[in-house]
UniProtKB/TrEMBL annotation:
Listed PROSITE patterns: NDPK_LIKE
Active-site residues annotated for this sequence: 117 (pros-phosphohistidine intermediate)
Protein name, UniProt field: Nucleoside diphosphate kinase
Assembly notes: Homotetramer.
Gene responsible for this protein: ndk
Catalyzed chemical reaction(s): a 2'-deoxyribonucleoside 5'-diphosphate + ATP = a 2'-deoxyribonucleoside 5'-triphosphate + ADP; a ribonucleoside 5'-diphosphate + ATP = a ribonucleoside 5'-triphosphate + ADP
GO MF, any single term: nucleoside diphosphate kinase activity
Annotated binding of ATP, by residue: 11, 59, 87, 93, 104, 114
Keyword Cell inner membrane found: no
Sequence similarity: Belongs to the NDK family.
Length: 141
C-alpha cells in the first residue's frame, strides 16, 4: 500500500472536551504518525480560506463561526493508506450516522460540532497540509 499524508484538525468542541490525547492515541494505534502539529485559534479569514470549497453552501457561516469559536489542533499524519484510514477512524460527517467506535460517534455532538476534520483525497491533502505547514516544519520519519 502507498504511504500517504493527510491533514487532520481536532476541532474546537473536541479541544474543549479535553480529548486531544485520546484522539492522538487512535491515530497512533492505527499506525498513523504525527509528522507536524500546531495549536491555533483560527481567524475568520483563515477558517474561510480553509473551507473555501464550501463557500456557497448554506452551512458555511455556521461552520466558520464554529471553527473560530476556540483553538484547534492541526496535524499532518503519515502512513499506509493514510487518507482513507483516517476517514475511517473519523466516521461519518453526522455523528448520528457514524459507526460505533469512531471518533465522531464517541466525541461529536452534532453535524456542526463534529470533533474532527480529515482530508478527503490526495489532492486536497496536499493543499490542506500546505495551508498550515511549510515543508520545513514537516518531520517525516
Ligand atoms: N457541515 C455542516 N452541516 C452540513 C454539512 C457539513 O455543518 O450539513 C460541516 C461539518 O462540520 C463538516 C464540514 O462542514 O465536517 C465539511 O463538510 P464535508 O461534507 O466536507 O464533511 P467532512 O469531510 O468533514 O466529513
Amino acid at each position: 500500500m502507498a504511504i500517504e499524508r493527510t491533514l487532520s484538525i481536532i476541532k474546537p468542541d473536541a479541544v474543549a472536551k479535553n480529548v486531544i490525547g485520546q484522539i492522538y492515541s487512535r491515530f497512533e494505534n492505527a499506525g498513523l504518525k504525527i509528522i507536524a502539529a500546531r495549536m491555533i485559534h483560527l481567524s475568520r479569514a483563515e477558517a474561510e480560506g480553509f473551507y473555501a470549497v464550501h463557500r456557497e453552501r448554506p452551512f458555511f457561516k455556521d461552520l466558520v463561526d464554529f471553527m473560530v469559536s476556540g483553538p484547534v489542533i492541526v496535524q499532518a499524519l503519515e502512513g499506509d493508506n493514510a487518507i482513507l484510514k483516517h476517514r475511517d477512524l473519523m466516521g461519518a460527517t453526522d455523528p448520528k450516522k457514524a459507526e460505533k467506535g469512531t471518533i465522531r460517534a464517541d466525541f461529536a455532538d452534532s453535524i456542526d460540532a463534529n470533533a474532527v476534520h480529515g482530508s478527503d483525497a490526495a489532492e486536497t491533502a496536499k493543499v490542506e497540509i500546505a495551508y498550515f505547514f511549510p515543508a520545513l516544519n514537516i518531520y517525516s520519519r
